[in-house]
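Help needed: design a sequence for this.
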């Protein structure tokens, strides 16, 4: 697997973990740049 892709995954995972931990249990607040990030991850994951 491409090391750059792994680094990308690690960044995304820590980002998502921070997002979950920092948000109240009700509805997670999505940052403004979520729309740019969100579509990238699933497609990359399934195609990897």
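Sure. Designed sequence:
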């Amino acid at each position: 697997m491409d090391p750059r892709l792994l680094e990308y995954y690690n960044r995304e995972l820590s980002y998502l973990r921070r997002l979950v931990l920092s948000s109240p249990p009700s509805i997670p607040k999505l940052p403004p740049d979520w729309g740019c990030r969100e579509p990238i991850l699933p497609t990359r994951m399934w195609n990897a």
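Residues 3-47 form one domain.
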